[in-house]
Specification:
The protein has 334 residues and is α/β, with parallel strands linked by helices. It is built from 11 helices and 14 strands. The chain is 42% helix and 18% strand. The strands form 4 sheets. It has a 7-stranded parallel β-sheet, sandwiched between helices. The longest helix has 21 residues. It is globular, with a radius of gyration of 19 Å. The structure holds uridine-5'-diphosphate-4-deoxy-4-fluoro-alpha-D-galactose. Uridine-5'-diphosphate-4-deoxy-4-fluoro-alpha-D-galactose binds next to helix 7 and strand 8. The site of uridine-5'-diphosphate-4-deoxy-4-fluoro-alpha-D-galactose has 22 residues, from helix 7 and strand 8.
Length: 334
Amino acid sequence: MKVLVTGCCGYIGSHTCVELLDNNYEVIGLDNFSNSKKEVLDKIKRITSKSIKFYEGNMLNEELLSRIFVENKIDAVIDFAAYKAVGESISIPIDYYINNVSSVLILLKVMKKYKCKRLVFSSSATVYGTPNKVPITEDSPIGGTTNPYGTSKLMVEHILKDVYKSDPTWDICILRYFNPIGAHSSSLLGENPNGIPANLLPYITRVANGKLAELSVFGDDYDTKDGTGIRDYIHVVDLARGHIKALQKLEKEKKGLYIYNLGTGTGYSVLDIVRTFEKTNDMKIKYRIAPRREGDVASCYADPSKAREELGFECEKTLVDMLKDAWNFEKRNF
Ligand code: UFG
């Protein structure tokens, strides 16, 4: 089975390529390296001893996308090609909507033309806005997103539902990720954000290696056990495995539109993460309590039971695995 992976060199895309190759899928990759590096292709090869057929370019390039479909008999697409920095999306919303929404419209148009109607889409727990209850189930209300990144994911979910309604011969799986962290156990693949990291884990690893002075813990007055924000951190390799489960579901069940949370179901506070990182990696992380960050919610974690029951998906990695792998990746690469 041939799978087109857009954004194949990015953080989640690269780990998913490894899982696909290990599960004997043929992978066709597309990336424009806007937030990734070419060397990731070699690293995927070193880990799996297999190659992907790679195209360099932008998903907005309809001609290139069409050529990929003409040159390869694509059976399914996993779409990771998107911008993902929440803060940046507020400053450059037009770029975010073009890159995250228009690109999907072009992809859907080309897929339809070449009669490939099987898609796994990277969505995010951000579509739940401020959750009205935790753990969050897939039928919780969506909307109320607080930034263009989140709204772009919400828009695409609506588009996919409309596409499916218009033509139920599509089979689509929307995966709502919680907080992916960690790295491949080889330390060859991991998260490498441009500039100062906005997310908790890459920030902590840069404090750990001395590149940043201290972590600001955004708020200690939330209504949570220690006052700091609670999130559902999922190891990126588990998350990548979730995509294989989603593909297998679409292959087995055929037509349908399915939505799953991908999270562990356990929430950890910022201070839990700091303390577990310190203990796991035997070091101190300097931090100070700072004001709340705008747009943050107190608590966000998944009810993962639908993915468990319908996909047979369960997370295998622990928080300690996540924090050990994240630090090993940072140490060996930066
Ligand atoms: N945090 C800090 N200090 C930092 C960075 C983060 O205290 O320097 C805290 C946040 O306030 C929050 C937690 O750490 O409580 C996690 O923050 P992240 O920025 O790592 O992640 P978010 O939960 O804000 O957002 C992430 C992704 C989004 C995605 C969302 C889904 O960045 O793309 O999860 O819930 F949409």
